[in-house]
Amino acid sequence: MTPLSSDQVLFDWRKSLGALLLIVGCVGSSHAATYNIEPTHTNARFAIDHFKTSTNTGGFYNITGQLQYDPKAKTGNVSLVIPINSLNTGNKEFDITLKSSDFFDMEQFPLAYFESTKWHFATDQASPKVARVDGKLTLHGETHPITLTATKFNCYFSPILRKSVCGGDFTTVIDRTKWGLSKYSLLGITKYLTLNIQVEAAKQ
Description:
Layout: H1 6-28, E1 33-37, E2 43-50, E3 54-60, E4 64-70, E5 75-83, H2 92-99, E6 111-121, E7 130-139, E8 142-158, E9 163-175, E10 189-203
Antiparallel strand pairs: 1-4, 1-10, 2-3, 2-10, 4-5, 5-6, 6-7, 7-8, 8-9, 9-10
């Protein structure tokens, strides 16, 4: 038998390692499930102080995207596409103002995005519990990191959809000026706003 050269040995070793990593990757992700975001049960709502008197509120709807969740491995991922045109404050004139170039500038930036980068799970629970989600929010042409605190998150079998559904509520406070939304921040409308994101997704 002709002995293998060092190059052949190295090639075979790399080939075997690659195959092993592929197998491990497949096994590690076997419990992960992919869910499609349900637009009718997903929204991003905001609340901002109005000259220290009342709180202006509004929300974005018809959100699409995907959720991946593996409670055993304690991993997750969520991506959201948020149409600015869906903004609704209950006041049509105010909606037009917020969609204008003074604020969200819908014509130039019709979509906002959220993409998670890491999910954190509570360590003092017998069963996995989502504690918070780190991610990047793209809004008004700017992308910055945010951390969403999970107030609740759960999965269940929907008798209506006849499939598994996962969803929850998340909240954070952001500085709107980081995304170039600075209008009236020096005249009494605070630059900080509370952002509440409600997500629900059905298993593919």
